[in-house]
Specification:
Length: 621
């Protein structure tokens, strides 16, 4: 039975301190349907190596697993297994045979037959039972009555208990209905949930729980669009909150009040979906920070796919059925799963009204896509979202064709990890609606287009790990006044390159937030130009990295960086500061004392260790 708490219980076991200490290695794999033995084997091996791998060939991967498990006591959790085909499991099981005595494999499944086929003895089967009515009522009230007075709770208790009975003992149902009732302030509103006609659905239509329908239909249109869009992701995918908001933004779902920024509206929508239990398995970067990652329960993912069965498709390029023309007309969002290293399948071109194309290259790198990109850009001109991100290692796209400029509706372009990409065509500057450009780990990228200033709607330029290859920033960067994310700015001194940006071009980027790294400061001498950057006025910045390192400079006499550092006074709300390659032995006391929110300071590649003494004299709040 779905939603009964199998995965939750397995997580409690997996994360228990005694379990962690008992095993040499713990590995958690989300299996789902279909049972992809190559992906599962690859993820097990990656767990041992601690990094993403660009490997092909099942036999080789299984041999590697065999060598890594040898003599180790391991716990392997296979979550949400469906396959009843024993042959798909046999080879993987054989590769695990030589782990140490006391190793365990824990499986969660809705079918007892699956557990038995995978080798579970009857004595080791643990069947979860539904919650009692009192347990359901307790879980529901924890969410529904949070923050209410005792009088309010008592007034709604009789209706709430009847609604709790509708949960049929399922924890997920209690959480969802509790999240729904949280927004019902009167008896009449709560009674409308109890009296809903959805409870009378035919049995065949109730596999995905009427509780989901009730909560979904209560949502405003924009929130319905946001949760439905998640059907385009692979099941069990880890969803980065900021990326999810940018994808919603690209589809024009974030239409809040005129005074609110889209990103703030997106945060509010995300929080509302969390409160209604549409999202779960939250991760935080730091203990006191907000949610950074989450997942969607597999039942809720199935529900989202049901809602969007004509609009969202998962396509696999190792041969799929020919699509009907009428279905092609309705499709708006596609994830292409690349099982083979071949160009894009011809069927993709029939989706003339496609708005999202997410290419999953976890099995094969993006290099084989290159020949199909010109035609792709020529024909799918309605695209708003295009994800061509790559695996971290291996070959990649080396250049984008000029036809990219035809995607005039494009708002989100992800080229992350395309490590052989050296430059972007100038036609990218024709993408006047572009909001997000992700170039993270494109560490061969030498330059950005000269006309980048024409992309006036750009809000997020994700260019982390490009500073070693980027020669400079183009002059037009200062015209991008909507920019909120700029991970790296490569500084250039005045008079060196007339087409390159200098520090003063940062002045108009008043909406920058999050993290900013300024590299290349080792060649900058113009203090007046640095003052023009007005970093102290960029109140949204929380992390600042000032990089003075320069390979040529290490061989020369050091210069005085004190005045340059003073000119780059950070904003008062800065929480994290890193300074690399700073040559001076002192730092301004006033410069530091203004940073009352600072929690983290890092100094690296120093040319003078006397700076540590200077910091010792400054009491950082």
């Amino acid at each position: 039975m779905g939603g009964i708490g199998k995965t939750t219980l397995a997580q409690l076991v997996y994360n228990h301190n005694d379990v962690e200490c008992h095993f040499d290695k713990r590995i958690w794999i989300c299996v789902s349907d279909p049972f992809d033995e190559i992906r599962i084997a690859k993820e097990i091996l990656e767990a041992f190596k601690g990094e993403a791998l660009n490997l092909v060939g099942k036999d080789y991967i299984l041999q590697q697993i065999h060598s890594h498990v040898l003599g180790k006591k391991i716990l392997l959790v296979l979550d949400d297994v469906w396959t009843e085909d024993e042959t798909k499991w046999e080879q993987l099981k054989n590769s695990l045979k030589f782990c140490s005595l006391g190793s365990r494999i824990l499986i969660t499944t809705r079918k007892e037959r699956v557990a038995i086929i995978m080798g579970t003895s009857t004595a080791n089967l643990f069947s979860l039972h539904t919650l009692s009515q009192e347990e359901c009522w307790s879980l529901l009230t924890h969410r529904a009555f949070y923050g209410r007075t005792r009088e309010e709770c008592e007034n709604l208790a009789d209706i709430g208990r009847k609604i709790a009975e509708k949960c049929q003992g399922l924890p997920l149902a209690a959480k969802i209905l509790g999240g729904l009732l949280r927004f019902k302030r009167t008896r009449e509103q709560s009674q409308s949930v109890l009296d809903s006609e959805i409870w009378g659905l035919e049995e065949a239509e109730r596999d995905l729980l009427p509780h989901l329908y009730l909560s979904y239909y209560e949502l405003p249109l924009a929130l319905k669009q946001c949760i439905s869009y998640c059907a385009v992701f692979l099941k069990d995918k880890i969803l980065n909150k900021d990326e999810l908001i940018k994808l919603w933004m690209a589809q024009d779902y974030l239409k809040g009040a005129q005074c609110e920024e889209m990103e703030i509206v997106g945060e509010e929508y995300f929080d509302k979906l969390v409160m209604r239990s549409f999202l779960q398995d939250f991760k935080r970067f730091e203990l006191d920070s907000g949610i950074t990652e989450c997942k969607m329960h597999d039942i809720i993912h199935d529900f989202a796919q049901l809602l969007t069965k004509d609009e969202c498709l998962m396509l696999v390029n190792n041969g799929f059925e020919e699509l009907r023309v009428d279905s092609c007309e309705k499709v708006r969002h596609v994830t292409l799963i690349r099982k083979e290293a071949v160009p894009t399948d011809p069927n993709i071109y029939c989706f003339k009204k496609l708005r999202s194309l997410l290419v999953d290259s976890s099995n094969h790198d993006t290099s084989s896509l290159s020949t199909s990109l010109p035609k792709l850009f020529d024909q799918l001109t309605c695209l708003r979202t295009l994800n061509l991100s790559n695996t971290l290692f291996g070959n990649s796209i080396e250049e984008l064709p000029d036809q990219i400029g035809k995607l005039v509706h494009l708002r989100y372009l992800n080229l992350k990890h395309n490590r052989k990409l050296k430059k972007l065509p100038e036609s990218v500057c024709e993408l006047c609606n572009l909001q997000t450009l992700n170039l993270t780990w494109c560490d061969s990228l030498e330059e950005l287009p000269c006309g980048i200033g024409k992309v006036i709607n750009l809000r997020h330029l994700e260019n982390e790990q490009t500073e070693l290859s980027l020669r400079a920033m183009p002059k037009g960067i200062g015209s991008l006044t909507n920019l909120q994310t700029l991970k790296v700015f490569v500084a250039m001194d005045t008079g060196i390159n007339s087409k390159a940006s200098t520090l003063g071009d940062l002045r108009n980027l008043m909406h920058l937030r999050g993290q900013l790294k300024i590299s290349g400061l080792g060649v900058v001498c113009d203090v007046a130009e640095a003052k023009k950057a007005e970093l102290q006025n960029k109140k949204g910045l929380r992390s600042l990295i000032l990089d003075f390192t320069d390979s040529k400079r290490l061989l020369l006499e050091t210069k005085d960086d004190v005045r340059l550092l003073e000119a780059l006074q950070p904003p008062p709300f800065l929480e994290k500061l890193e300074i690399w390659g700073y040559s001076s032995p002192t730092i301004s006391r006033n410069w530091m004392m203004g940073l009352t929110k600072l929690r983290h300071v890092s100094l690296g590649f120093l040319l003078s260790f006397e700076l540590f003494a200077s910091f010792g004299k400054i009491a950082i709040p």
